[in-house]
Design brief:
With 754 residues, the chain is α+β, with helices and mostly antiparallel strands. The chain is 36% helix and 24% strand. The protein contains 25 helices and 35 strands. Strands 2, 3, 4, 5, 10, 20 and 21 form a seven-stranded mixed sheet that branches. A five-stranded antiparallel sheet has the order 12-11-25-24-23, sandwiched between helices. Helix 14 packs parallel to helix 16 and helix 16 crosses helix 18. The longest helix is centred in the N-terminal third of the chain and has 51 residues. The termini are far apart.
Amino acid sequence: MKKKVRRIKAKEKFAFILFVFLAVLCILMSRVIYLKIAHGAEYEVAAKNQQINRYDTTVAANRGSILDRNEQVLAVSTAVFNVVLDPLQLADVKEEQQEKTLTTLCEYFPELKYEDLKYHITKNPETGKINTPNHWKYLVKGIERSLKEELEEKNLKGVYYEQTSKRSYPLKSLACHLIGFVRGDANWGLEGYYNETMTGIPGRSFILYQGADSVTYQDYGAQDGNTIVTTLDYTIQQYAEEVVQETMTQWPSQNVAAIVMNPNTGEIYAMAAADRFDLNEPDQPLQMEGSESFRERWEGMTDEEKSEYLNSMWKNFCIADTYEPGSIYKPLVVAAAMEEGLITPSSSFYCGGKLNVAGQEIRCHLRSGHGALNIQEIMAQSCNPGVIQIAQKLGAEKFYQYQRDFGFGQRTGIDLPGEVSAAGLMHALSGIGPTELATMSFGQTFNCTSIQMATAFSALINGGNLVRPYLVSQVIDAQGAVIQENGTEVVRKVISRKTSDYVRTALKATVDHGTAKKLQIPGYSIGCKTGTGEQGSRARNDLWTMTHLAYFPAENPQYLVFCIIHIPDTYQDGVQTTAPMTKKLMEDIIRYKNLEPTESAEKAASLTSGKAVQMPDYIGSSTYYVTQDLEGKGLSYKVVGSGNTITNQVPKGGTKIDAGSEVILYVTKAEGDSGTVKVPNVVGKTYADAAKQLDDMGFEVVFEGKPEGVVVAQEPKYGLSVKEGAEVTIRLEPEKKAQTTETTETTETAETTQ
């Protein structure tokens, strides 16, 4: 009886457990059904988002632009796109859609091969999976927005476009040492100094599902970086680089450089050195293009040697290289002694051609001696014994104090990376004995940088204020608001206005009848100090640095022009000089700025009358009409890009430039523009050479004149984009007549621009 009762209880227990299990199962199923009905769509999207977010990408922010003082673009970033293939998605669509995607990609990008693209979505028989089983395969990088939008219209499956940014420098090597670049840990120029300011905030792009099988982007836009407006003047910078390159060609040297600045404010208008490089390809020396011997030498270098060469080329000579300044330092000694009341303008010192200092003879450049000289003539004739005697009156302690006050042995604080102080190449006060004091008085036995010398000389002529040189005047955010403004910063007062006024005026004598007579420009008041500083071992006697430090107008200087030839390869005393480059640079500035003469002279107006051409604003215009207008104005031109609609120009509209100057036109292909092939420049070529070049490019050649001649004109003009196979008419003239015509035109141009 008891056994039967136990059996009944076991059945009840099993039934209870079964009931509980079924009840829980029903509750769970009810919950699943409820969630599916109430939140199914939401959870499905979330699940897909979680799956695909592994392929989210960063949307690169455009780096802020760099502009000159007239808003000419020196550096700019634009949005470009990387073409990306999603093999998993493409493999999952119909075969005709796959075919359309692959053939279209090959059509637009010849570098892509159909077989390679097909491989990515082909199943591997061993694994049963496609050969590239992922969502992200880069195909092409850096395509333009217009091409990306054109491809988007074709609705290619499995193809995405990752936004990134491309930095470009439209003027290539112009101001390369100032603009600089950022590459890895290497920061050069303004790009490096203002890196954080110009770097924007990146956005994000997520790949999301829409519907059952369509994949799209969800973008969170990037915030572009700030733009910097510099104190540079594109035109003056171009002038400076031209005279530097011309001088370097005439007298090959370790370096040739030029600085143009406002001595009152510290604004840098131009700074140029000979070791140029293309900012778009900074690791490719420009000599690779024109010198086969250099190319061979470059290819034979080790990686370490190449790196050393490039770093030397990228370095800004004007702020990073030091040298003994020579006689351009003498006016600072005069100013210090005058400020201390030790000399007056009427003070006189005797030069017998040499001076004995502590048992050592120190000679003057005029071996016969200058005789008795007043202060003005000591500077004008650059007399060593005269300035030594002034330094002896000043004494070592005061000499050292003023040297520091003028900024030597210290960084100027210019807003560029890589500036050196040269502090280790200066005498300590305890090391200045009679001989050191004497040699330092004419700028020897200590070193400085070019920017230190230019800044110190500015204080000498601007009323006595040591101002910080600077290159950036404004920082502008992406909305166009000015968020930072830089101006004149006076570091300290070095000398009084009275002393400054005297020295500034007295240095006119250097140009009037002293060592800088070659700088005379009729009608213009100019002050200057010349210098020839011996470098390194005195035993060699062939390492010299030649300088001219000029300013104008002398009564109220607005421009300081500093030119340097640093250690020419073959030095000849009195042969190499910075006078021609200094004078040409000043004349270029006078013409460009149309500066009125400060003194009466019959020839004064020749620099400013009828030489400047005011640039129209050509942006948005067609090159067909612009090229004709430029030729009518006596301007040459260069076309960059493909198409016939002008998107940018250098110089900008409103700028005044010299007749004969070159204008750069940046073009693109606009809607409805049928031009696809750019017409080359064949003017000056023989008929055979011109016809071959045009024929090779698919043009139909029509000629006027005799085939034995040379091309003197062409239609359409060089740079225009025309249809493939278009007709190009060339006008030929006998070579002798063409040369005569060319000579006549050149003579007329020369007469016009003198």
